[in-house]
Every structure is written in structure tokens, then in C-alpha cells.
């Protein structure tokens, strides 16, 4: 019996691409001997992307539980790679930022990320790769707008 689900639809393709790129990134991080786990490297990368960021928003971006992000931040703060600062508007909330000690690791993570993206691109011409990136940005924007409308309607 056929399910009616196209295994090559865009949702499955994007999920597979994400899973494969993440797996390649994690393998390369594990082999690089950076002193952080692949999961910790993802946390550092997301903090670098949008710092300073509140802990709960970081957990949401990574798709992990808030308790889990606290554990990661505790370890990375203990290693001197992250710092927490109280939100001046809400003392209960904490902002997370990279420390100066994180930058040598971040440089290596950038190199690993570049290598993974290069492997993913393969022989795809630069123009087509850029069109794919721009299309993905538009899709993300469309979905973010839908999500925002739903939030606004719920209020």
C-alpha cells in the first residue's frame, strides 16, 4: 500500500541535508581535538551567530530543552568559553556571550563549517549554490512570517 507521501518532497530533502551536514560537522569537530564536544561546538556556534542571546532563546534555536542548554552553558562557562550576564530589563533572565578565550576555537569551528559547506556544494556551480542559499533564505523568511502571524493571533 502506497502512503501518498513523496519521500523526495522539500521537507524531507531539507531535513536530510540538515542531518547530513550536522553529522559531517560533528564528526570533524570530534576528530579536531578542540576540547569541546560536537554538541558544545553547536552551542558556541549559535551563541556566536546571535550574541548576546538569552538562554531560553538559545535553547529554542537549537531545538533542545532549557535544562539541557543550562548544562551546556555551565560546562562552557566553566571552561571559560562563555559568560552569563544579567539582563538589565529582567534580572531573572541571563544573556550568554562568548569570551575572548572562545575565539581560537571559533576560528577552527569556522574552518570546519567552511569545509562541510564546500563538501556539500561539491561540483554545484557557484551561481546555483548562491541561488539555493537565497531561496532557502526566502523560505525561512516565509515560515518565520507565518509563525509570527500565528503568535500575534494567539495574543
Mean pLDDT: 94
Number of helices: 6
What percentage of the residues does DSSP assign to strands (E)?
5-15%
Give the CATH topology of the largest domain: Arc Repressor Mutant, subunit A
Overall body shape: globular
The strand line-up of the biggest sheet is: 1-3-2
Radius of gyration: 18 Å
Helix content: 55-70%
- Name the CATH superfamily assignment of the largest domain: Winged helix-like DNA-binding domain superfamily/Winged helix DNA-binding domain
The main pleated sheet reads as: 3 strands, antiparallel
Distance between the termini: 43 Å
Uncertain residue ranges = none
Count of all domains: 2
What structural category characterises the helix and strand content? mainly alpha
String of helices and strands? HHEHHEEHH
CATH architecture of the largest domain: Orthogonal Bundle
Number of strands: 3
**Which CATH top level class of the largest domain fits?**
Mainly Alpha
Question: Care to describe what's here?
Answer:
By secondary structure, the chain is mainly alpha-helical. It has 2 domains: 10-122, Arc Repressor Mutant, subunit A, CATH 1.10.10; 125-155. The protein is built from 6 helices and 3 strands. The protein has helices at 10-32, 38-50, 55-62, 66-78, 103-121, 126-154, and strands spanning 53-54, 82-87, 90-98. The chain has a 3-stranded antiparallel β-sheet with strand order 1-3-2. The protein is globular and about 50 Å long.
